[in-house]
Amino acid sequence: xxxxxxxxxxxxxxxxxxxxxxxxxxxxxxxxxxxxxxxxxxxxxxxxxxxxxxxxxxxxxxxxxxxxxxxxxxxxxxxxxxxxxxxxxxxxxxxxxxxxxxxxxxxxxxxxxxxxxxxxxxxxxxxxxxxxxxxxxxxxxxxxxxxxxxxxxxxxxxxxxxxxxxxxxxxxxxxxxxxxxxxxxxxxxxxxxxxxxxxxxxxxxxxxxxxxxxxxxxxxxxxxxxxxxxxxxxx
Length: 235
Ligand SMILES: NC(=O)c1ccc[n+]([C@@H]2O[C@H](COP(=O)([O-])OP(=O)(O)OC[C@H]3O[C@@H](n4cnc5c(N)ncnc54)[C@H](OP(=O)(O)O)[C@@H]3O)[C@@H](O)[C@H]2O)c1
Prior knowledge:
Elements: E1 4-8, H1 13-24, E2 28-33, H2 39-48, E3 52-56, H3 62-73, E4 81-84, H4 105-128, E5 134-138, H5 154-174, E6 180-185, H6 202-217, E7 225-227
Parallel strand pairs: 1-2, 1-4, 2-3, 4-5, 5-6, 6-7
Bound molecules: NADP nicotinamide-adenine-dinucleotide phosphate.
Residues 8-9, 11-15, 33-35, 38, 58-60, 85-88, 111, 138, 140, 186, 188-189, 191-194, 198 line the site of NADP nicotinamide-adenine-dinucleotide phosphate.
């Protein structure tokens, strides 16, 4: 069935692959990006035309997210799926404590942890009018406190742990309104963030995730934090 899907952070990497996959399925995709004329999105726009609706949206900026939601409301009366995919690392993330700049943590928390909440808040009226509404937050195993073994990446790991808590709170709040909210670890992907040594192709991951999100929407998976295969992940 045709669905209306919002993807935050759609300009490249996993977000661009998810945009492509949903367009291939015939869905209408609202592609939120800091630069909505990003080359990858322009290529998809040339191919898929009106099915792709680029939205200028910086998830770290409340006004930008509110404006994007208003622009989406001019084009549709509902959304079925929101995917919060935008994510960043700081430049000093991979240094040990003595060398890392902890002030770098704040912008990372803003994008990775608060950004998805901004997006869900601004687009919630559209999601509530959708069909089996789902908000999927792209998290990471690095946000799991139970399995943590790293000694650095404070900014990123703490931001994803906070995103996981935000996901659980949203899940609790929205479940009685018919909305599912989940956090998904997508696996290690060959993107700008993941690097070329990573084990997964981002388009293949996008294909797996679209199937997984249907499983969740149709009630075949009731986990809240899971990996890309749908296996529940420890908080
Ligand atoms: N790659 C991995 O192995 C891996 C593993 C676990 C989890 N993840 C998560 O998966 C998601 C996608 O990662 P990726 O590997 O595709 O990363 P990526 O290639 O670095 O792409 C990141 C995307 O986020 C967007 N973005 C960053 N800040 C933004 C902002 N303020 N507002 C809107 N968009 C913003 C970027 O847009 P611009 O082009 O404007 O910068 C870009 O589209 C992230 O949440 C990441 O944490 C990735």
